[in-house]
Amino acid sequence: MERIERAADVVRVDVAGRVEPSSAWALLAAEHDHLVWSDRSTAPDDAVSFIGLPRSAADVLPWSGTGPGALEALCSTLRERLPAVRSRRLGWWGWIGYELGAAAAGVETAPSDEPAAAFLLTLRGVEFDHAAGRATVLALAADRPWAEATAARLSGLRPSPVLEAPRAAAAWRLEREDYLDRIAACLDAIRRGDAYQLCLTDRVTVRADRPYVDGDVLRRLRATDRSEHAGVLRFGDRSLVSASPERFLRVELDGRASTRPIKGTRPRGSDAEEDRRLAEELRTDEKERAENLMIVDLMRNDLSRVSEVGSVEVERLFEVERLASVHHLVSTVASRLTGDAISAIAALFPAGSMTGAPKRSAMQHLARLEGGPRGAYSGAWGRIAGDGSLDLAVVIRSALLHGDTAVVGAGGGITALSRPEAEWDEVRLKAAPMLRALGAATD
């Protein structure tokens, strides 16, 4: 990789007129094999979307390392190669697969044919300020000619149509009776005292009658399932498409860290009265509150390993968050870090909401029960910015695309109070929006 001076200056060139991120993506994605689209058009704060590009092939980081030290080695590599740039968007964008976290905990998992992790050092890109209706091209000072040329190309760009979903067929790894059997095994483990919560997951493989177009999958998905952590990460012939509602880890410039675990789900109601009833049912449900509290305690413990003594606090507990297709029960845990943002990744990964508790014991049981790898699903994806901030989401409500094939994960937390049939229904409810975007039936 070309050496980049520390604290490199960033040039900003405004695009004349209004341009939609989807139109810019269609233009740039037709020319590049590696790029990212972070869609924050509905975010409650920092509503700025971003399309980022690496400067060269040297800024593409596939990670195939495995074993107990692989996650720490990845974090070290990301830290060493990240230049300091005055931007919240420019920097690393990528995903970390679940198996790296399991290996770091000494848990053996099934082999996966997906990349263990994949990152792009995006030091060129376009910001879309949704409140101001303005697009701005960003680049290092040395790349001003590229920034000016790109701004000119985007000016006046017409909206691009979204393709209809292909016809597709979906096959679950664990069908209903198999999944119910695994729930029974989880309940046995809980009764024995081996764990007190287990996040049991399943995977569905979708095959279509034509190759998927990643940007169109996201556009179909966000029409019904919008999220502040939505986006596409294209890494060669694979693309991660996500509408994740769950924050894994955010770190601000002042060292404040926060995580927002989700535990507890209900469908949206068919009318306002039913919707309020379901939200209140979720907020007061004994099983859902206990499940959420267990993971809050786990995340407090994980954060305490890299935070100032006495700084870890639960800022919000048992909040009902309304999304297009579901209600979620969400809590927020925050602290002040003692080290940099990247140092916190290894301490928290994978998210406790995707493992259960105690974390290592839960992962060991799940590795035996789930019948295969999770891959990118239940890992983390997002940005590690050159200004020292970080924002990663849990990889849920997501699909990994490869040609005409997509894989989608879904799961739920099993506790002593779980009702197996309800857990089965919840898994299908969570997967349904993505399956519809992929063109697969959800019955």
UniProtKB/TrEMBL annotation:
UniProt GO MF annotations: 4-amino-4-deoxychorismate synthase activity
Residue ranges, annotated region (Disordered): 259-283
SUPFAM superfamilies named in the record: ADC synthase
A GO CC term assigned to this protein in UniProt: cytoplasm
GO biological processes: 4-aminobenzoate biosynthetic process; L-tryptophan biosynthetic process
Stretches assigned to the Chorismate-utilising enzyme C-terminal domain: 176-430
Family matches, as Pfam families: Chorismate_bind
InterPro entries, alphabetized: ADC_synthase, Anth_synth_I-like, Chorismate_C
Biased composition (Basic and acidic residues): 268-283
Superkingdom of origin: Bacteria
Name used for this protein in its record: Anthranilate synthase component 1/para-aminobenzoate synthetase
Native source species: Amnibacterium kyonggiense
